Structures are given as structure tokens and as C-alpha cells.
Amino acid sequence: MNAVSWIESVGAGALGRWRELHQLLGFASAVFRRLLSPSSYRPLTVEIAVTQIYFTAVQLLGFFIVVSVVFGSLFIGMTLFVIKEIGLTGYIGDFIAGVVVLEMAPIMTTLLIALRSGSAINAEMAVMKANRELDALEAFGVDIANYLFLPRIVAVMVSVVLLSALFAIIVTASGLVFSAIIFDMSFNTYTELIAKAIEYRYFTIMVVKSAAFGFFITFIPLYYGSRAGYQLTAVPVAVLRGMVNVFIAIIIIEVLSLVARFL
Amino acid sequence: MMELATAEKGRYAPVSADIPLLSNLSVFRNIALIRQYHERLGREESHRLTTEALERFGLCGIAEKRPYDLSERDLFLVKLLRAAQRKEALIVIDRPFVQIAGLRSFEWIRKHLELLDFPGIDAIILDYEWNGERYGSDGA
Amino acid sequence: MARDTLQYKVGLFIVSTVALILATAVLVAYKKDLFADLATYRLLSESGEGLSQGMPVLFSGFEIGKVSALELSEKGEVLITISVAQKHARWVRETSAFTLEKPLVGSPRIVVKTEDTGSAELPADKIVPIKTIDDINEVIKKAQPLVERIQSVADNVDKMTNEGSELNKIIADTRKITKMLSEKKSLLEMATGDKKGQETLMKTLEQVAAITATVDTTVKRIDSMTAKADEGVFGDKGSLATVNNILLDIEAKFKRLDALIDNAVTMSADLQGTTQDINLLRKDVDETVSSLRQLLQDVRNSLPFDQKKEIKLP
Fold it and tell me: Quick check: ipTM above 0.90?
């Protein structure tokens, strides 16, 4: 392979990636517009969304609470020890509000849901494509963006927002136990510290961030699943591509949110 | 078939081996889906109409079954009921004898088509010429 | 029906989670005194630097209020309005002193100090001037002379120990003499009659002793300087302990800190480097002095410095 053809292949690869990204974002913005348009919502959409919330959040709830309590307590316990060591006790509130509520809660919830529901949705779509079920819907004039994408995206967005908030509340509550043990802090002092550190915009930031995570960890698996080939062998490939891109999307959203927060 | 699908996009209602039922939905929900989507029906209304449709073919017993649990004949009838849910449906039955391998004549299908007396409904059967005699005197 | 159970569970989940979130939000709002009656007071600052709306007002380390408004007066001074929850208003008295603190770590705050909590309540229309404490500048001011002193000590020690210095010459001479002494022939010569050589040796040894004393004193001074520097710089209350705290927080705060902090950090780094150099120098000098002592001891052990004592010939 000479230098020119090598450069050509690099260029072709880059253009291919760009086209793929362009298509993905184009479709994402089309789906997002439908998300905002009331006419996209049918009683059927709500019914499917409710079922999806059941699978995504309610079925996961027990495990999620255990993970929140165990992981949250360990994390907060260790960090409070470090805070005490370096003498920054006065900043417990800022740490819990800034790190746990704004960063850890959405990302932990997102990772858990992406691993569980994101992969399931991706495989479901790819199998539907291979079984020609997507063609069947198209034949009957059922728009897959409205029927398949919209309710699932809405459901996961709602689930991520609610579970993130639940995670933040559980971890903050376990922080109360550790503050009492490590700093001999009363309930009143602790809640006062946390409340003073929480700014009202944190609620908005958390909801927007969790919703953005929810959108992309559902949209990307749906997109890659629905674009799989007709062979059953295309299913694992579609799941693999979808999930890798979900991971990339999570990192990008996290970076963007950090940039937005500190700018 | 493709031409029909394009020309009659709003009415096109295929019953074909290539157009499967959705495997993760029950029979009931596969049938209900079409009206729920196109006519934006609520749960109660959709439930009533779907039950009524299933009763026509006496299929209430399999309402909660998944497509992969159905026999060839039941699968065909469910697809036919689903097709009939489109408004002023143009039901296009694609090679029925391929879909139901054990079927000897068209009579069984005709009987069920007659039960679908929805307003404005039409049916077209597409099949190989050599299957002509299986359709009886009136042909296809 | 199974679906009803599913819908019921989803509904229950959504309702209870939303209720929990709302309860948390209400608790936060309550703790932030959103529902409390507020008392407002007015303060005056020459400059608006470091002041911002929403800045906390602290009393004994607890937040009792916030800066609710900032405006320029007709004289070009900054009028600060602070809102304090009515339940905390008893800490704000006529005798209260207000200070704008710009700590090394964390964001600026207004600190209220009230010596006499029994004095009259501060009238809402009275404008109280505010003092400013800038921790970063304080540290820089404190650290500057210390750095200069340490630098000059380091230079002196450098001069003392560099090649060609008196100390090095003496050490070289002493080595020569010891070498000579270690040879039996020279020892005999010196012991039996070469008075001149013996006197020279005595003189040299006296010189060495004097220099050792000087070096000892210098080392003690350096020791005490270093200790001071250590205390002042590395000690619990020293500048570096504080500066180290900045370094811990520096990543997060870096962008927000102004050029002054940059100077402070550079200085802290210099300070640390210099102090380490001093420690190394002190170690070198310690080693030199220790080898000199050893040398002297060896010489004393080997030689009869007492002139009355006779040396028996073999």
C-alpha cells in the first residue's frame, strides 16, 4: 500500500465516521423534536412507556437501593475520613452537594441502567430487525420512531431522573450516619451544612443532566439496533456498536456538564 | 406486492409469511396495536374492539399467547385480524398455501374473510398460477 | 390483571419518588431559610472587589445570611445589603464588626463578630463600614522576608563551603598533616626536635578548633534558622501548611484565583526549594564538622601535645 492510498483510506474512514455521526445526530434531533411535540403522544405511547418504566426502574429498585446504600456509604465514609485528615471539615456540605448529588448520582444510575436496559433495548431492536418485525410495522404504516423510540426514551429519561434523585437522597442520608460517627455531628448541623451547600440550580442541573443521559443511553441502542442487518449474526455486532457508543456518549455528556458547570 | 404497498399506502394490510407478528407482544396486543396507533384509541376502547375481533374468529382463548406459541392456522388468522384493523383495509394475502402448509383449499380462508364484514374492506390474494385449482370455481 | 399490577407498581414508584424529592427540596429550602422572615442590614466597602450577590454571611462559622444586593453609592463606594434570617438577627448588634474575608481556601465571605451580644440591635438604616482581610496577600507578606533571610544564609554557607574557601583549605591542610603524622619517620622527626613543625601543627590545630567552633555556631544558627523556617514554613501553623491546603484545592480553584495566587504558589514553591537546599547544606556542613572532629581526635590520640611529656625512643 503506497502513501497516497493509505492517506485515502484514512480520509475515507474519517468521512465514514463523520457521516455516521451526522446521521445519528440528525436522527437524534428528529426524535427529540417529536419528544417535545404533544401530537407525538398517543395513549399507546403512555402504555408502552409505563411498561418500560416498570422494566427499567421498578424491577431494578431493590437492587438499586442496595447498591446505593452499600456503595454510597463506603464512598462517603472514606471521603469523610479524608476530609477530616486534611482538615476541610467545613466543606462536607460542598463535597456532598457538588460531588454526590451533581456527579456521582447521575453517572452511577446511568451506568447501571445503560448496562441493564440499554443493552436489552439494543438487542431487542436488533432481533426485531432480523425477524423483519420492523418491516412489518413499516408495512402497516406504524412509524418506528413514534412507536418504538419515543415511549422507551421517555421511560428511561423519567427512570434515570427519578433514580438519580433517589441515589442522591440515599447517599446523603448515609452521609448523616457517617458524619455522626466521624465528626460527632448532629442531624440538625448536618442537614444545615448540606442545605447551605445545595444551590437551587443544582436541582435543574441534575434533572437536565440525568434526562440527557437517559435520552442517549436509550436512543443510541435503539438507533444501532434498528440499523442492524437481517441476519441473526448481526445482532451481537449491533449490540456491541451500540453499547460502545453509549459509553462514549456518557463520557461526552459528563465532560460537557463539567465544562458547563465550571465555565 | 411492493407496488401495492406504495400505491395503497394508507390501506395496505399484508398477510404474509414475510410480515411477521411482533414476537414480544401477545396476540391481543398485536391486533390492538394497529388501531391504537392509527386511531389513537385509549385502552378501554381498544380492548373492546380487539375482543370483538377475536370473538369473530373464536380466538379469545389464545389472546394472551405469544406468536411463537401459535399453530400455522392460528398464526394466519391472527395476521388476518391484524390486517383487518386498518381503516378501509386492503388485505393482501400473500401465498396462503405457503403460510399454511396443510391447507388443501381456499374455502377455509374464504369462510374467515366473510366474517370480516368491516366497512370498505377489500381483499386480494396473490399466489402462483399453478395453485389456481385450489381456489375452486371462482378462482383468485 | 397483571397489567394493572404493573401500572400500580409504576404509579406507586413515581408518586413516592416524586414525593421524596419534593420533601427533600422543601427541607433544603427550609434549612436555607427560604420561608423565614428576613432582617436586612447595610454595610459599606471602599471597593467591590471580592464581593458578590449571594455571598454568605457567617457568625461563629455558621451561615446566618447572604448578601442580597450590591450597589454603588454617590461617593463611589459600594453599598452592601445583607439579609439575615430573623432567628439569627440577635447576633447582629450595634457593636458588631463586619469583615470581608478572602480565605486561601474557599470562597470569600462576610464574617460578623459581636463582642457584646447584649448591646442594642443594629438599626436597619445604619450603614456600617466593612474591613477586608486578604489571606493570600497576608501569606505573601509574611513569607517574603523569610525567603530573603533563608536565601542570604544559603549564600553564606555556599561561600563557606565552596572550593577554595578557607574551610576547605584548612581541611586540606589538616589532611596533609595527618598524612605526615601517620608516617612514622615524620612523627619521630617532629617529636624529637623539630619545634617549628610542632608549633605549626599546634597553630593549625588551634585554627581548626576555632573554625570548628565558628562552623558549629554557624551550624547552630543555620539550625535555628532552619527550625524557624521549618516552623514558619512547614509547621502546623506555618505558611506552608496553609499553602499545602491551597495546593490541595488548587485544581478546582485554579481558574478562579487571580494573579496574586499565581505569585503565592510560585513563592511557595521557591520557599520549599530553598528550605530543602538549606537542609542539604546543613547536612554537608554537619558532615564536614564531624570529619574535622574525627580528624582532631585522631591527631590528639596519635600525638603528645603536652610538651613536658617525653617520648621514649625505641
Answer: no
